[in-house]
Amino acid sequence: MRILITAGSTMGMIDGVRGIGNIFKGGTGAKLARTFADNRHTVTLLTSNGGLLHDQNGIRVREYVTFADLAGLLEEEITMGEYDLIVHSAAINDFTPTGTFIPTNNGQLTQMSDVGKISSQHKTLFIRLSPTYKLIDKIRTEWGFKGVLVKFKLQVGMSDEELVRVATKSMQDSDADIIVANCKEWKDERAIVISKGHTRPLFIRPIRRSALAKCILRATQDVFVRKENLPALKLVS
Question: What is the pTM of this model?
Answer without folding.
Answer: 0.87
